[in-house]
Amino acid sequence: MLQFIIDDLPTNASVVPCISGRCYDFAERLGNIYRVDLKRIGPMNNDKLSRRAFLRNTSLTTVGTIAGFAQGGGPASLGAKKDVFVRHSNRENIDATKILNYNPKMGYRRLGKTNLMISEVSLGGHWRAPWRGRSGGWWWGKFVKEEVPDDVAKNRTEVVSRAIDCGMNYLDITGAEECLCYGAALKARRDKMIVGADDSKLCPRRDENCNVKAQLYNVEECLRHIKTDYLDIWRVQAKMDGTNTDADVEVMLEAFQKLHKAGKVLHFGISSHSRPWAQHVIEKYPEVEMFIFPCTAKTKEKGEPPVMDNVEEVNAGYGPENKSIFQSLREHDVGLITIKPFFGGGLLKSYDKPKIGVGSKEDNDLARLTLQCILNLNDAITSVIPGLSTIYEVDNAVRASYTRPLAMMAADRDWLMEVTEQRWAKLPGEYTWLQEWEIV
């Protein structure tokens, strides 16, 4: 059995024995959860180990540069005068007081040309609600007279509140019903989230919407439903099969320019399920500031040498000179927000079930380790945005960032990849297209 004690924690902090190589010691401090890798500590003894010393001794390669996590505590005051080191892809010294909802345990990364600092784990708009009898628990379905039911508004308000407290600062919305729900959740606190939005029924996924007038209406409806007068990012949803033409993209850009001039949209991005099309747009249009596409624990960068974490490299055979889309993002300074980390839910045993309570340990571990794996995948990634149904799922998701400096244990990595391979082989039919995003 392994054990240790961290000083400066409440007296009721628990110490848990390590069993079967996959174990976590949880100590609650100021409402936030720390995960401690016991495997790196050694046999039980009576010596206290300070958090700073623990991080210094156990991080191996990363924690020595991460002061934010070592400092602990809750969100920093915006009026703080001291310099704060913020974790993100380039490990740069930046002014943390300018980061929305800053929490010293959360990692933040620059979203390409937008220059927005985004929490590396943020909030996706989809969720499976903790109730039955409404479209199987999913959020979608029209609301009578656009009135959000009380239970839906309560759920989204609680989740958004917990996300803000934990340091998340980006919210991604893709439909009218989502706009209504999150509009209710953001009532009187719109400025607490960087909001990216689009309406899936009004976006240029449909040919009849591929004109400037229709796209101006698209954004106006998003604003009306959210009850706001601006979007931080208009993240247009392109056709899933990549058949939007360059003329369609230029329509999107013309609409954005009009909206931007009117102060209704600050930044422009696109989401796509088609990798060749996405890479073409990133390479051709410098006006694109950020992109949204899928990444999973199976995703690997095209062109990387075969190493431990990338042993299945193949020549995908398309793209500009077979260049990785990650390379295109870096070269053009386009930020990346990733979606579908859990294969649309198919990765988890609770798939197709309403989310009630804290959930199972296996699903929680799998979700957290998957998010952490994606965050470690590539420095072109700014943020991953899982859909989160409960406050407990928020707590679990943010721990992927909070604990990232400690590195993933070998036993955890092996277990994650074993389960991922099993579930990948049984992707739900509506998500088999994710296989096209394995080598990118």
What does this protein structure show overall?
The chain has 440 residues and is an alpha/beta fold. It folds into two domains: 1-58, no CATH class; 82-437, TIM Barrel (Alpha-Beta Barrel). The protein contains eleven helices and twelve strands. The strands form three sheets. Strands 5-6-7-8-9-10-11-12 form an eight-stranded parallel sheet, with helices on one face. Strands 1-2 form a two-stranded antiparallel ribbon. The chain has a two-stranded antiparallel sheet with strand order 3-4. Helix 3 runs parallel beside helix 10 and helix 5 packs across helix 6. The model is unreliable at 1-91, 131-138 and 306-318 (pLDDT under 50).
Compute the gyration radius: what is it? 22 Å
Count of discrete domains: 2
User: What is the straight-line distance between the termini?
Assistant: 42 Å
CATH class assignment of the largest domain:
Alpha Beta
CATH H-level superfamily title of the largest domain: NADP-dependent oxidoreductase domain
Helix content: 25-40%
How would you sum up the major sheet?
8 strands, parallel
Global geometry = globular
Overall pLDDT:
78
Please give the structural blueprint.
Blueprint: E1 25-29, E2 32-36, H1 51-58, H2 67-71, E3 108-110, E4 117-119, E5 123-124, H3 150-166, E6 170-173, H4 176-185, E7 194-197, H5 212-226, E8 231-237, H6 246-261, E9 265-271, H7 275-284, E10 290-294, H8 325-331, E11 335-339, H9 361-375, E12 381-384, H10 391-402, H11 410-424
Parallel strand pairs: 5-6, 6-7, 7-8, 8-9, 9-10, 10-11, 11-12
Antiparallel strand pairs: 1-2, 3-4
